[in-house]
Amino acid sequence: MSQSVVLTGMVLTAMPVGDYDKRITILTKERGKITAFARGARRPNSQLLAGSNPFAFGEFELFEGKSAYNLSKASISNYFRELTEDLEAVCMGFYFLEFAEYFCQENNDEVEMLKLLYQSLRALESKTFNNELVRVIFELKAMAVNGEGPSVFSCMHCHSKDDLHKFSVQRGGIFCDECGRQIPGMYILDDTRYTLQYIIATDIKKLFSFTVSDEVLAELKRIMKEYLQVYVHHTFNSASFI
What are the Cα distances from residue 99, in Å, to 49, 143, 235? Predict the structure, then answer.
């Protein structure tokens, strides 16, 4: 008889199976991304009804099968209800879930990605932050956590830390003014470079603690849009709704 396990995580996706069941994907702290079946979760009186929806964060009691888990109990500490009341924010939130679902793997250490996802959704709930800034922070930090972030702390050619203004998406990083003369790319503000460095280097819990000018945000958005086009060979369906 299989033993139950209790995992901490967040529901990324949920889809109907049969008449009353759900097939859900959960990003967990202990085992990375897992697939689980929630039997009877679509029945109106099911104890699993709310806990098997996207954004649900908490502890999940599951029985481990040969190819998937079976959810028996969910103790949810955050449903992100305020997020779901804002159309723009919830669309952004679904994009973050889809992004995490694409990058995360089963039985992989995804603790940092789970932290990033949780903190990013909390930032979306807050009226303090610009959602577009939250998006670029999430995208850049997610790429960095996944080991695919750009090199922004020194010139990629001469390793100088001065006069770093030329960002090349194709080369995956930044160049000083001298080395960047012959490198195709975009010139960026010092504040934009500082922001890139801060996002990559800072602990996730401290990420959402700053604002930027409209000019810096525009450069950050351009960088991440082009960067993802080059290094992420996937179309995120939810991004079309943002």
Answer: 24, 10, 10
